[in-house]
């Protein structure tokens, strides 16, 4: 009977781990050669004010600005929001590669533009598409305003054997 409860506990714990793996896309992380968690420290940009129908400066909260940067041996990869489900990660991400000119990792795509210095672990992230859509109904959410953020990345050491 004791072994049955031990087995049952193991099965329940396994299901929770598999659920987390699907929810936070950790399965994809395991196949990357280098994986970085990037956290933004400061962010500034523009916000559309409906009452004045104009853009104004704004400092944005950075609590939710956490990203994953995955790189393979050829220094190409993907930059996406931490906690993205696999289907969103494919659509809302930026593709990355090492720049021949600057030697930085440079990412471009629907999530925005990124410059990452692997030596200092410093990162800049710019989202500029929001302003150019030219649609007032999208601007009212203020989530599409152009912004630039700075932060730091830490390499995740996933010792999976």
Task: Write a short abstract of this structure.
This protein has 5 helices and 9 strands; from the N terminus they run ααββββαββββααβ. By secondary structure, the chain is an alpha+beta fold.
Please characterize this protein's 3D structure.
It is built from 5 helices and 9 strands; from the N terminus they run ααββββαββββααβ. It starts with a helix and ends in a 5-residue tail after the last strand. The chain has one domain. With 161 residues, the protein is an alpha+beta fold. The model is unreliable at 16-30 (pLDDT under 50).
Topology:
Blueprint (H helix, E strand, L loop, with lengths): L1 H23 L1 H4 L4 E16 L4 E6 L6 E6 L4 E6 L4 H6 L2 E5 L6 E5 L3 E5 L4 E6 L1 H4 L3 H4 L7 E10 L5
Put simply, the count of helices is 5
Largest sheet: 8 strands, antiparallel, barrel
Structural category: alpha+beta
Radius of gyration from CA coordinates: 19 Å
Quaternary status of these chains?
single chain
Q: What amount of the residues lies in strands?
A: 35-45%
Residue stretches low in confidence (pLDDT < 50, at least 5 long) are 16-30
Whole-number tally of structural domains: 1
| Average residue pLDDT | 80
Helix content: 25-40%
Number of strands: 9
Strand order of the largest sheet: 1-3-4-5-6-7-8-9
């Amino acid at each position: 009977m004791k072994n049955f409860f031990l087995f049952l506990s193991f099965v329940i714990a396994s299901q929770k781990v598999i659920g987390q793996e699907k929810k936070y896309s950790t399965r994809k992380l395991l196949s990357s050669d280098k994986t970085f968690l990037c956290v933004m420290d400061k962010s500034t940009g523009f916000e559309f004010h409906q009452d004045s129908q104009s853009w104004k400066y704004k400092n944005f909260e950075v609590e939710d600005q956490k990203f994953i940067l995955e790189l393979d041996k050829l220094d190409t990869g993907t930059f996406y929001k931490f906690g993205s489900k696999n289907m969103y990660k494919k659509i809302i991400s930026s593709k990355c590669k090492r720049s021949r000119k600057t030697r930085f990792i440079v990412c471009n795509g629907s999530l925005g533009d990124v410059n990452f210095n692997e030596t200092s672990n410093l990162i800049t992230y710019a989202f500029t598409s929001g302003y150019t859509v030219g649609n007032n109904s999208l601007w009212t959410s203020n989530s599409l305003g152009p912004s630039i953020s700075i932060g730091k990345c830490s390499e995740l050491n996933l010792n999976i054997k």
